[in-house]
Amino acid sequence: MTSDSRLRALGKTDREERVSWRQLLREDIQTIYDKDPAARSLLEVLTCYPGLHASWLHRVAHGLWKRKHLTLARMISHIGRFITGIEIHPGATIGRRFFIDHGSGVVIGETAEVGDDVLMYQGSVLGGTSSERTKRHPSIGNSVVIGAHAIVLGNIYVGDGSKVGSGSVVIESVPAGSTVIGVPGRVVRINGRRLDGRPRDVLDHGRLPDPVVETLRCLVDRVELLEGQVRELTRSTPVNWNEQVPLDCTWVKDGKENLT
What we know:
The protein contains 5 helices and 17 strands. The radius of gyration is 29 Å and the shape is elongated. The chain has a 6-stranded mixed β-sheet with strand order 3-6-9-12-14-15. 38% of the residues lie in helices and 15% in strands. It has 2 domains: 3-216, UDP N-Acetylglucosamine Acyltransferase, domain 1; 217-257, no CATH class. The chain has helices at residues 3-35, 42-48, 50-66, 70-84, 211-236; strands spanning 87-88, 93-94, 99-101, 107-108, 113-114, 119-121, 125-127, 139-140, 145-146, 151-153, 157-158, 163-164, 169-170, 179-181, 186-187, 252-253, 256-257.
């Protein structure tokens, strides 16, 4: 390849990268319009959304991290934390159309991996559970919603389309399409059936089914079913259910306990 052809190829690559960056910026801005009804103008989005600022600063820091400029990457990440209140380690891998709403208190660890179209709310954490230099932070699939102050810990996977309820602590992997709530986090699924009252809006992470209430409801239904079966047996058998049955307890004799 001649020097001219190399220069033309390099120039083409640079133009493609510039187009790619412009496309990413447009996607980030459009994502805010799509996921936050409070967004009203471009100026407001560019100046008043710390989640957007943190995402853009992370892209710069992550690029430096991959090029082994580790200290400079950490400095940019630290500046981003000071400005936005959001801490994203430059080693974390973040997908496209990532949005942090409100933002304050969000922490994403070094080995965390976040897919495309992920939405995180304030106070949520993707934390590690090991002091070893291995994969110790969670991997988040595509189109996942992580509610306010939810914590996902360890080298686990949260499947595509899952929703983590506000205040939940997830310590085990979650299959795709699940709704997780509680401490520790539990997948809301009763006898494999879809629960009524599951939120229809992808942003409605505050209205989630209560697994304890649903379990008690199932137990009540089961008790009513068993009582109905007992009534049927009472009507269909010749046994006199009103007859007093004498009790003969081996440890009770003449009204006194026999302790020998």
